[in-house]
Write a structure and sequence with these properties.
- The complex is a heterodimer.
- Chain A contains nine helices and one strand; from the N terminus they run H-H-H-H-H-E-H-H-H-H.
- By secondary structure, chain A is mostly helical.
- The longest helix of chain A has 35 residues, at 2-36.
- Residues 95-99 of chain A have low confidence and may be disordered.
- Chain B has helices at 8-15, 17-29, 39-84, 87-105, 219-227, and strands spanning 5-7, 106-107, 133-139, 143-150, 153-162, 168-169, 175-182, 185-192, 197-202, 206-212.
- Chain B has a seven-stranded antiparallel beta sheet, with helices on one face. A two-stranded antiparallel sheet of chain B has the order 2-6.
- The termini of chain B are far apart.
- Classes of the chains: A mainly alpha, B alpha+beta.
- The interface between A and B is large, with 53 and 42 residues.
Chain lengths: 186, 230
């Protein structure tokens, strides 16, 4: 019974991955090509993204069509940016804060801004809805992965090719940026 | 949202779905109709996906198996402890190991006919090592032992005994064991690293052992001495 369950699950997962590949393979390629402007690199990104999808297939099994496309966009954009950075001999993303001066500043600021306990009013909530769309891609992606799709910092770190600490820092910086956009620091 | 105030984290949980809409908009804005991916690339990617899936399953399955194995080990451990709490089971269990060990260290003889329960006749080899003196060391009901001495040092021992439940114990460590025969009866020859030898056989009536305590006595000589037992 246990083995039948495992086998049926495997089949289901395989079908899901194959379906994504068939339906959205070209989208992944296109997103990558728009960033990299190179066919070979775009094909590599397509390969890497599909492998990432296979490894995180549980997230896609639980997602509807829109959520699947959103995750694909995030996966593809970040995989392409990583290839771009590697091509430029910048192995780490320019938004990795953990070992930069800026990262140190964020750590110091974390003591000043207790974001976990920050509360916002109804008016500010509406501002938040408006401003969140205007965040830079790297902030939006990490917020979406964590708050929309329930990725842990470690899982998000694998997708974004950064450290789990950097995911936390990116989240912190994103929230701080949002508060700034909303017109005040809480 | 019914509350007037909301924590930032909770608020993000509520509003983050607008990012999905933004991603959808972006995806729709891309024209993928002109995208052509070579079939060879698609095949390669499918193959890589399959490998990744297998790797994922490989890591996933053991975690499920681990739980099953741990549960089985717990059950086995408790069952074993309960069984060993009984004297009879413990004794039987230990006997299995003891018997198994004895099978490998001892030579057992099982007579096809009813062998005598006592030594009715003493048999001794008519041949003996040259220049040696023969001394009878034991003349018992179930054992007859003869020693052969040279310069007051025992160089060979001959033993005749009844075939019973007890086996003939022969040290089988650091030696080469050879199957041979003595007067057409199967025999085992143990040749030790220090040059000494032991030959043991039976003739359906009695069991015999010849030990050489001197490396100067060859296997051939020992077998000749054994074949002279009348």
């Amino acid at each position: 019974m246990f083995f039948l369950l495992v086998l049926s699950l495997e089949e289901h997962e395989r079908d899901c991955a194959e379906e994504i590949f068939k339906s959205h393979g070209k989208l992944i390629y296109k997103i990558a090509y728009n960033i990299l402007n190179n066919h070979h690199d775009a094909e590599d990104v397509l390969n890497d993204v599909m492998i990432s999808i296979v490894k995180n297939i549980e997230k896609f099994l639980r997602s509807n069509e829109n959520e699947t496309i959103s995750q694909i966009v995030i996966y593809s954009r970040n995989a392409a940016i990583n290839v771009y950075n590697k091509n430029k001999r910048r192995k780490k993303s320019e938004f990795s804060f953990d070992d930069t001066e800026e990262g140190k500043q964020v750590f110091e600021l974390a003591d000043v801004f207790d974001l976990e306990n920050t509360v916002i009013s109804r008016q500010e909530f509406e501002d938040l809805q408006r401003h969140i769309k205007n965040l830079p891609d790297e902030y939006r992606d990490v917020i979406s992965l964590v708050y929309n799709f329930g990725y842990s910092n470690v899982e998000a770190a694998r997708i974004l090719d950064i450290t789990p600490n950097a995911v936390g820092l990116r989240l912190f910086k994103a929230k701080k940026k949002l508060l700034e956009l909303m017109g005040g620091e809480k | 949202m019914n509350q007037d105030k909301l924590k930032l984290d909770d608020a993000l949980g509520h509003v983050a779905n607008v990012l999905i809409e933004k991603d959808i908009e972006y995806a729709k804005s891309l024209d993928t109709s002109s995208v052509i991916i070579p079939q060879s690339t698609l095949r390669k990617i499918r193959k890589n996906m399959h490998s990744a899936k297998n790797k994922t399953n490989w890591w996933k399955l053991p975690s499920a198996f681990k739980k099953v194995i741990v549960a089985m080990l717990c059950i086995c451990t408790v069952s074993f402890a309960l069984c060993m709490a009984h004297d009879s089971t413990r004794e039987a269990f230990l006997n299995i190991f003891i018997n198994e060990h004895e099978k490998h260290s001892d030579v057992f003889y099982n007579s096809e006919i009813n062998s005598p329960k006592t030594l009715e006749t003493y048999k001794a080899p008519s041949l003996q090592p040259s220049d040696s003196q023969k001394r009878i060391l034991m003349e018992g009901k179930d054992n007859y032992i003869v020693g052969y001495f040279k310069n007051n040092e025992r160089i060979l021992t001959y033993q005749q005994m009844i075939i019973g439940d007890e086996s003939s114990s022969v040290n089988n460590e650091q030696c080469a064991v050879t199957d041979t025969s003595v007067n057409k009866f199967p025999a085992k020859l143990f040749e030790y690293e220090d040059g000494t030898r032991t030959l043991t056989w039976h003739d359906n009536s009695y069991a015999y052992i010849i030990y050489s305590q001197s490396p100067n006595i060859t296997s051939k000589e020992i077998i000749m001495i054994a074949e002279s037992v009348k």
